[in-house]
Write a structure and sequence with these properties.
The chain is mainly alpha-helical. 58% of the residues lie in helices and 10% in strands. It has 7 helices and 5 strands, in the order βαααββαβααβα. α2 runs antiparallel to α3, α2 runs antiparallel to α7 (150-180) and α5 (107-119) crosses α6. The two termini are 43 Å apart.
């Protein structure tokens, strides 16, 4: 499964959380939710940005299903949260993320590419869509499909912001506790 995991157990603030009042736990929850949302939006942003791909290397993907399947899996109070691909796109998401080498495309792949051509309005009828699918299959025998690296890109773009979010929330909570004399 493709995912980005945040594990707050590794953050020194967890030691404070064990002994601190509820305020620190609330700060940690806010930072976790904000960070997971930031990473989820980053993945979706990469998917939504077709300008990242040269015309000759553009991915053969109908983006809507994958984009709509990116979810956050986190329970309030938990030190671990995940941004992941939902079940509706798990069968093909790894190929979109990492790409593929040159490979033959079988009958099931031809059917999937035919449907993709119809969904993307690249063909007006089934026969034209099937021809389009066979043409793609011929190209994939000799040329790779390049990965989009949506999770890696999102993490790289947001890593510093995620750390900053935790630091900001914990610092604000600690300052509030110090002001209250806790």
């Amino acid at each position: 499964m493709l995912n980005l995991t945040i594990n707050a157990d590794t953050v020194p603030a967890m030691q404070m959380l064990e002994a601190a009042p509820e305020r620190l736990a609330q700060a940690d929850d806010r930072a976790m939710f904000s960070s997971l949302t930031m990473l989820q939006r980053g993945v979706v942003g990469v998917i939504n940005n077709p300008s990242r791909f040269p015309v000759s290397e553009g991915p053969a993907v109908a983006w809507g299903h994958l984009r709509d399947s990116i979810v956050i899996d986190w329970k309030q109070g938990s030190p671990v949260g995940i941004v992941a691909v939902g079940p509706e796109a798990q069968s093909y998401a790894p190929y979109v993320e990492y790409g593929t080498g040159p490979h033959p495309i079988g009958r099931a792949g031809i059917e999937a590419l035919t449907q993709w051509a119809l969904v993307k309005h690249l063909a007006g009828d089934e026969k034209t869509a099937r021809s389009f699918a066979f043409a793609i299959a011929q190209v994939r025998k000799t040329k790779p499909m390049y990965g989009v690296h949506m999770f890696q890109t999102s993490f790289e773009m947001n890593e510093a912001s995620v750390y900053a979010e935790f630091e900001k929330e914990i610092a604000a909570a600690c300052a509030e506790l110090i002001d209250r004399g806790v």
